[in-house]
Write a structure and sequence with these properties.
Layout: H1 2-17, H2 31-49, H3 53-72, H4 78-94
Helix pairs in contact: 2-3, 3-4
Length: about 120
Amino acid sequence: MRRAAALAAVAVLAGCGARHAAPPTQPRLPHALGTAWREDADAVAAALAVGDGCLAQQRAAALRTAVIAAVNTHRLAPRFQEPLVGAANDLASRIRCVPPPAPAPPPPAHDDHGKHKGHDKGDD
């Protein structure tokens, strides 16, 4: 009986001292960053949709700069840093800026008044 009581006491004490650790919280992307970057990505897509690769490239570069700034200021959990920087770099590197061709120069003005200069009617 003593043995059973001792064993029960050990079991109770062991149960009291056990810590039930809560599962670790998963890092989350800050809402403000996610919202801003979604808008930036939408702006890149809109520029591409209208065929403006130069504007899309500028916007993709700005998005990449924003992601890198978040990493440098520790606003982005380490778990997200490599995938997001990699995606931002990939996006910016795949966009090509092809400026539209320059408009053709206007045709030279036709000047009939100067073509007979130096040829006066009375010079013979």
